[in-house]
Design brief:
The protein has 243 residues and is α/β, with parallel strands linked by helices. The chain contains 9 helices and 5 strands; from the N terminus they run H-H-E-E-H-E-H-H-E-E-H-H-H-H. The chain has a 5-stranded mixed sheet with strand order 3-2-1-4-5. The two termini are 26 Å apart.
């Protein structure tokens, strides 16, 4: 994942890559089909070694209002710009809700199930059930019961998904920063948000995992002194119909 490699840095777009404009094209198509209440959904934290996976669902006000300046996929924004846009989005969107699945849920149920739980929690937190759920990516991890439409690069193309991307990232970053200051300063979660930065990896090797680490993940295989703490991965990964 780009985010896992770059941590909290804005992403440099390679020369020759497709240029996407964050707008309402897909939302307008859905509205033309009678699907006027659209929730954009995006996640953050999937590739981290510590902390929750976080999902945000956003509904934009009717009439396709101009979005905050510079709104795009959160990975393309500097931390300061993300924070500024997130603060503006809180009062700009018609509604939003955050859902999370903890590191212990990830260990117990697997990432696919944890993602679904976090997404359903976010969607269930909206004031009304959306007519359609616009999900970033090609895979529907939300599953049955929700009218999901997957769109690749939706966090770059769609206002509602870009807004969800920024709000999810800022919410999770703030939470991980609180862990860094309160309980695990050596791991520098305020800087790496639980992703495997060099400082994080060095602290993990020296001190062992914190109570916030995902203990079923393969990074423990490379740490002989802590390998005995690893938990077995669940065998229900991906079986959304069972949860």
């Amino acid at each position: 994942m780009v985010e896992e490699l770059l941590f909290d840095s804005p992403v440099a777009v390679p020369a020759g890559s497709p240029v996407y404009v964050t707008g309402y094209d897909i939302e307008r198509d859905l509205a033309a089909e009678g699907l006027t209440c659209v929730a954009g959904v995006d996640e953050v934290g999937r590739g981290a070694w510590a902390g929750p996976v976080t999902v945000c669902a956003v509904v934009v006000a009717p009439g396709f209002p101009p979005p905050p300046a510079g709104l795009t996929d959160s990975k393309l924004l500097s931390p300061a710009r993300r924070e500024a846009i997130a603060d503006e989005l809180v009062s700009w969107v018609a509604a939003y809700a955050i859902g999370e699945a903890s590191h212990t849920e990830i260990d117990a149920a697997g990432m696919t199930v944890a993602l679904r739980r976090a997404a359903v929690r976010a969607l269930s937190g909206l004031p009304r059930r959306p007519d359609a759920v616009l999900l970033d990516g090609a895979h529907d991890y939300i599953g049955r019961g929700w009218p999901v439409r997957c769109e690749v690069k939706a966090d770059l193309r769609c206002v509602c998904v870009a807004a969800a991307s920024v709000l999810a990232k800022v919410h999770r970053d703030r939470f991980m920063a609180s862990l860094s200051f309160d309980a695990a300063p050596e791991f520098a979660f305020a800087e790496n948000a639980g992703y495997p930065s060099p400082v994080h990896q060095q602290a993990l090797s020296s001190l062992g995992p914190t109570p916030y680490h995902r203990m079923s993940w393969s990074y423990l295989d490379d740490l002989p002194q802590w390998r005995h703490l690893k938990k077995a991965r669940p065998d229900i990964e991906g079986q959304l119909s069972l949860i």
